[in-house]
Amino acid sequence: MKALLITRKGWQALDKELKYLWKEYRPQITKKVQEAAAQGDRSENADYTYNKRLLRQIDGRVRYLVKRVEELKIVDYSPQQEGKVFFGAWIELENEAGDVVQYRIVGKDELDTKLGYITIDSPMARALIGKQVDDDIVVQTPSGSKEWYVNKIQYKAFMDE
């Protein structure tokens, strides 16, 4: 089973998207659909067809977000986490070749590889949970086992240092 966890910032982003879609974007598109429908023949009305499809997409996303924000559990930082890897941690790792990578363990809804965010359900995150600085971890990847050394663990972004 996949973890239904999210950081507070991640939950706020989903909630903000939901409110925007429901209170601002959907009413704009509904108005466009009504205006296009008022022009008569809907079968050959590209504006009507396009905005109607867009409305269905918005409604689908709204349904997903409503369900999602209710079922997700927000995980806030706790001082007891300090020194160990848990959900929400930023981790710096190094391999034997000297390659250094930085990751943050987040929920599925926050995944952003450009920011170095990995999901709690990923093999790397599972190997890291509970580890401390100077620990070694072995991660099973499709190309075989990879060994990493834990350099740093912190609960604020590395760029905020």
TrEMBL record:
InterPro entries assigned: GreA/GreB_C_sf (IPR036953), TF_GreA/GreB_CS (IPR018151), Tscrpt_elong_fac_GreA/B (IPR028624), Tscrpt_elong_fac_GreA/B_C (IPR001437), Tscrpt_elong_fac_GreA/B_fam (IPR023459), Tscrpt_elong_fac_GreA/B_N (IPR022691), Tscrpt_elong_fac_GreA/B_N_sf (IPR036805), Tscrpt_elong_fac_GreB (IPR006358)
The keyword Protein biosynthesis belongs to this UniProt entry's keyword annotation: yes
Single biological process term from Gene Ontology: DNA-templated transcription elongation
Domain Transcription elongation factor GreA/GreB C-terminal as annotated: residue spans: 81-155
All copies of domain Transcription elongation factor GreA/GreB N-terminal, residue ranges: 5-74
Keywords: DNA-binding, Elongation factor, Protein biosynthesis, Transcription, Transcription regulation
SUPFAM superfamilies assigned to the protein according to its UniProt record, in alphabetical order: FKBP-like, GreA transcript cleavage protein, N-terminal domain
Pfam families documented for this protein: GreA_GreB (PF01272), GreA_GreB_N (PF03449)
A GO molecular-function descriptor: RNA polymerase binding
Entry annotated with the keyword Transcription regulation: yes
Function, as annotated: Necessary for efficient RNA polymerase transcription elongation past template-encoded arresting sites. The arresting sites in DNA have the property of trapping a certain fraction of elongating RNA polymerases that pass through, resulting in locked ternary complexes. Cleavage of the nascent transcript by cleavage factors such as GreA or GreB allows the resumption of elongation from the new 3'terminus. GreB releases sequences of up to 9 nucleotides in length.
HAMAP family recorded: GreA_GreB (MF_00105), GreB (MF_00930)
NCBIfam families: greB, PRK01885.1
Protein family (similarity comment): Belongs to the GreA/GreB family. GreB subfamily.
Record's protein name: Transcription elongation factor GreB
Species the sequence originates in: Shewanella benthica KT99
Top-level taxonomy: Bacteria, Pseudomonadati, Pseudomonadota, Gammaproteobacteria, Alteromonadales
Gene that this polypeptide is encoded by: greB
